Amino acid sequence: MLASGAPSHINGEMLAIFTDREWLWGAAALYLAGFLLGTVSLLRGGRPSNIVMYSLIAVGFVIQNLGLAERGRAVGGCPLGNNFELFQFTAWSAITLYLFVGVTFRSSLLGYFTACLTAALTFLSLSLPAWDSTRRVHIFGQNPWIEFHAALALFSYGVFALLALTSVLFILRIYSLQSKRIGGWFSFLPSVLDLDHIGVRLLWAGVVLLGASLAVGSVYWLRDPAKVGIGMLTTAWVWVAYAVALAMRIRGRLLAKRFAWTCLVLFAVALLSLPLVDASRHPAPAAEVRFPRNNA
Amino acid sequence: MSAPGIFVIGANHHRAPIEVREKLSLGAENEAALQAELAGLPGLREFAVLSTCNRIEFYGVAADAEAAAKVEAAFCNRQHFDAAEFGKFRMDLRGREVLQHLVEVAVGLDSQMLGETEIFGQLKEAYAAAQARKSTGPVLNRVFQKAFQAAKHVRSSTAITVGQVSVANVAVELALNIFGTLAEARILLLGAGDIGEKTAKAFQSRGAASLTVSSRHIERAAELAAQLGASALPFDQREARIADFDVIVCSTAAPNTVVSTVATAMAMRKRPARPLFYIDLALPRDVETGVAEIQNVFLYNLDDLAKIAEENRAAREAEIAKCRALLSERVDGLWRQVEHQLPSSAGRNGT
Predict the structure, then answer these.
(1) Cα nearest neighbour of A180 on chain B
(2) Under CATH, which architecture does the B167-295 domain have?
């Protein structure tokens, strides 16, 4: 295991300028800047600028990539070895989706809420040293399928994060229409139908991705059932819950506000399950690796 | 007698009542003939004509002091309108005030419906027409183009165009907040009165393609349906067919409600995932208030719409000072650019 905050040894000169955590602090600061800028715009009665919001998030994303890349090199694989890394990766997944898919929703408020959520996730993970007190290296051993399973599962959590954000927008839109207050920043919200369609598509995507992740993982666990821990079961239950929500939505049994609230609650449950997943890990199979400090 | 330079003369809704504006309104033929006449006016270097239902304005660059008066005389003569009478309603601005007025018109600050955006398109059309007949030159080209830029800047930097200020447009905006686009929205008009007709037209102007009219008087429904290019529905089928529609505009003069909560609840069972929007413009009301409790159903009555329109209007008015401050900077800069290009009484740049 690595000591917390230890910089990794990498070849790229750029990455070596800062430690992984310093890069990640920088990214978190940019996400926070996006959130604060959006808040100021809304308080002034204006719309958060799409270009500014997108630029801040995009630059934050690049910096977060640098931090995660450095961390990945240090731990010898996808950085999913502790709570800190799980939260960072979830935030990264949500941002990836926003930048490449979410922007087509043409809602500056989606960027605003994405910045809010990712700032919260990244700052929370950075400000709790206990979450990053140990770093597991080579946690996936020599098995790339398990690494793929884990990365896919976390990516689906990013999809569910974006789904939670669209659910927030949906609830606000319904509130504005029912309370007959459509002016102010409510006017920047997408329509009820658009948000509903986006939510269903995201739910489909998340269920398929998490299902694929579990399918990949099951190949490994079926060969060695003893390794099926509470983490795997928790993830499976999260998938079942989302799959049931999707089935009910398709059958018209879970609609509108109830559907949005369900997606929000499920995401909270999924987030709370991450520490369980982390706690159920088996000890890292590889030897500890220590890297010399090489900060510029 | 006035000095040469840039001017705008005309009449608009601020001083001229509708009866006068009707008489001053230029028909297409008269407009073409007048423009041909103005093109031959000695001393008039450049001109453009803005003619809308609320204003007739002649923007010009005069090389001599009489040109503006000649434009006015030609217009009054063409319209058979007494020149002395015209003087009572006339707007006559010169120099920097012309630029200020033009940008305020472009932004919608000078419009009867504050902040409306239609005038921007009308102004662009007027300028394009003037360009096409080569009646603009370096001064008006610069002035109009800069006015358009300033208008776009102000509209995007302020909330002057945010929110609709008429009941019909508020209803359309609400429908857009629910459905995103009206292209696939199916609209039912219950009642064939004026307010319903206006609302239906507002929906059509924003892309609504499927419109059905139903009235207690079937002849009137058929007549309005034909007028709007819509289909007609027998009034007694209205509740059975609720599920077929996304937006239902109610404006009957019926003494009791004509849409029940029970019928709506049954309709929603057939289309639970698709919202239903009731716009109840009738007094007494047409729709039972209980429908608002049904999931995915939205109900707005006349008071709700009027309140939103009033709030939007007040919000726009609160933006006027901010708009003027932004425009003033632009106008100052523009005036410095064009001032030296203008003919002067001392003969500078004069013909």
Answers:
(1) B304
(2) 3-Layer(aba) Sandwich (3.40)
Pick the catalytic residue from B53, B76, B250, B323.
B53
| B268 contacts on A by Cβ (under 8 Å) | none
**Residue B76 annotated as catalytic:** no
At residue B202, what are phi and psi to the nearest 5 degrees? -65, -40
**B17: which residues sit within 8 A by CB, 6+ positions away?**
none
Are the CB atoms for A183 and B312 separated by under 8 Å?
yes
Contact yes or no for B273 and A182 at CB 8 A? no
ipTM: 0.73
Residue B292 has pLDDT above 50, yes or no: yes
Spell out the residues 6+ positions from residue B96 whose beta carbon is closer than 8 angstroms to its own: B331, B332, B335
Candidates 3.30.460.30, 3.20.20.80, 3.40.50.620, 3.40.50.450; CATH matching B5-157+314-340: 3.30.460.30
Given a cut of 80, whether residue A226 has pLDDT beyond it is no
Q: Which residue has the higher pLDDT, A133 or B183?
A: B183
Q: Do A180 and B308 touch (CB under 8 A)?
A: yes
Counting DSSP H helices and E strands in chain A, the numbers are 8, 2
Per domain, the residue ranges of chain B are 5-157+314-340, 167-295
